[in-house]
UniProtKB/TrEMBL annotation:
The keyword Transmembrane applies. The lineage of its organism: Bacteria, Bacillati, Actinomycetota, Actinomycetes, Streptosporangiales. It comes from the Bacteria. This is Transport permease protein. One of its GO terms (cellular component) is ATP-binding cassette (ABC) transporter complex. It comes from Lipingzhangella halophila.
Length: 267
């Protein structure tokens, strides 16, 4: 039907809505973009993820507090500090922020959207990976300024990247498991406690070989120890990429993701 005096059809300008959820990849990218902005605007998390690792790297490299014999402290420390940075972003910071998002009802509102638990985990992991890229650039730049001389070739760098990806997935899963099951205050306390304990026991600053022998198997099974030892093997020692750290991180990733998907509560 047309109006008198015009040849323009109403049907040509009719809006036809197409309700339905956006594709999963688009929802994940939108959520990860929001997560990244929140991470970068949080001063406390930047202190945890950027300032503390750099201070530890510089402090133990230039003061002589770490006795490694003839080895340069910065060569030993840099892989461990990278591992600490990965954990601080993927686990500690993410557990705390997600715990308070859950307390304030942010996750409840997300739960009313088509975004699934898997989509939320994927979005948070992507945002964490973006922050970790910046962390690695900053830490490596400081380490090079302190005389760091990595020994890894192309294969070693590729192995290190796979280790970081696996560790990020493992820590992110464990962070969401903690934040999705505990109260926000309990998550805050537990996440900081885990950070301090693993900083001391995870082979970040002190070699695992210095701990009592009966503790070593348990310490070597920790995700941060696997990440630090794997990075140190290829970056500091020039060894062939070991398989054990990959296996340990893969098991933590599988277990953490399965438990987080099953037990995570939106409110």
């Amino acid at each position: 039907m047309t109006e008198p005096g015009t040849h323009r059809s109403r049907s040509a300008t009719t809006f036809a809505p197409a309700p339905g959820a956006a594709p999963l990849w688009r929802m994940v990218l939108a959520q990860s973009s929001m997560e990244l902005r929140v991470l970068l605007r949080n001063g406390e998390q930047l202190l945890l993820t950027m300032v503390i690792p750099v201070l530890l790297l510089v402090g133990f490299s230039v003061t002589g507090l770490l006795d490694l014999g003839a080895a340069a402290p910065v060569d030993f420390l840099t892989p461990g500090i990278i591992a600490l940075a990965v954990m601080s972003t993927a686990f500690t910071g993410q557990a705390i922020s997600t715990g308070f998002e859950r307390r304030y009802g942010v996750l409840k509102r997300l739960g009313a959207t088509p975004l699934s638990r898997f989509g939320l985990l994927a979005a948070k992991t992507l945002a964490v990976l973006a922050v970790q890229t910046l962390q690695v650039v900053v830490i490596c730049s400081v380490a090079f300024g302190l005389g760091w001389a990595p020994t890894a070739g192309v294969v070693g760098v590729g192995y290190a990247a796979v280790l970081v990806l696996l560790a990020t997935a493992a820590f992110s899963s464990l962070a969401l498991l903690m934040a999705g099951t505990l109260r926000a205050e309990a998550t805050l306390a537990a996440a900081n406690l885990v950070y301090v304990v693993l900083l001391g026991l995870g082979g970040v600053v002190f070699p695992v070989e210095r701990f009592p022998e009966f503790l070593r198997p348990a310490l070597e099974g920790l995700p941060i120890t696997a990440l630090a030892s794997g990075l140190r093997a290829v970056l500091a020692e020039g060894a062939a990429p070991p398989l054990l750290p990959l296996l340990v991180l893969a098991l933590w990733t599988a277990a953490g993701a399965a438990l987080a998907s099953r037990l995570f509560r939106w409110e």
